[in-house]
Amino acid sequence: MGAGHAHRLYRHGHSPVHALPPHTKLAAVFCFVVVVVSTPREAMWAFGLYAVLLGAVAYASRVPLPFLLKRLLIEVPFVAFAVLMPFVAEGERVDVLGMSLSVNGLWGAWNVLAKGTLGVAASVLLASTTELRSLLLGLQRLKLPPLLVQIASFMIRYGDVITDEMRRMKIARESRGFEARGVRQWGVLAKSAGALFIRSYERGERVHLAMVSRGYAGSMPVIDEVTASRAQWTYAFALPGAALVVCLLGWTL
């Protein structure tokens, strides 16, 4: 985990949220999501308060609202699934705008939309204020199995390498007059995919041999030791702590 690696979700900044150690933010987001999932779906007001809490975090992180909303589009497939639930679920039916909808399906759709949106929003905020390299260091600090951390690290680093290789191959095809217009061009694309697979496999072998020659024995050395003070832990857990209070009120009121 040597050099930094920026990604499209990350937005450079100098806010208090950006400055928090990555493992504190990872733990805080995980606890927040657990609290949100544990909230009864009937406590609709509670989910509104969760959204307010996330809005406060977004304000403190100085991440623009359009930036966050654009990244929330990743939730669209889950929204489509939730919209279908009232139509396909069984049980008591109710008429809404001339349509017969399932009561259980409506509650289920609300449950998926509310909890899913809040979880995705919290994850987007985490990614927007934490670099990928820092996230990996945070996972390492939280004692995630080292093998999983290494796999994630290699996926992140070489995903862009393979993507760049695909881009160069596309430019090479287009420079020779190739255009994918129909089924007849599928053979060329299949050969390109095969060549990409072989190149990626060979690159992986060369990287592994290079690592072994430099003393790699199954674990990566820890270059940066990430630590957090009690004040930073307290600041990070303000979000899940406030959410826990809301959750308890949702179960008791």
TrEMBL record:
Topology in membrane: Multi-pass membrane protein
Compartments, as annotated in UniProt: Cell membrane
Residues spanning the membrane: 43-60, 72-89, 109-127, 233-251
Presence of keyword Lipid metabolism: no
Coiled coil ranges: none
Keyword terms, alphabetized: Cell membrane, Membrane, Transmembrane, Transmembrane helix
Pfam families, alphabetized: CbiQ (PF02361)
Keyword Membrane included in the entry's annotation: yes
Chief location bin: membrane
PANTHER family: SLL0384 PROTEIN
Protein name, as recorded: Cobalt ECF transporter T component CbiQ
Chain's gene name: cbiQ_1
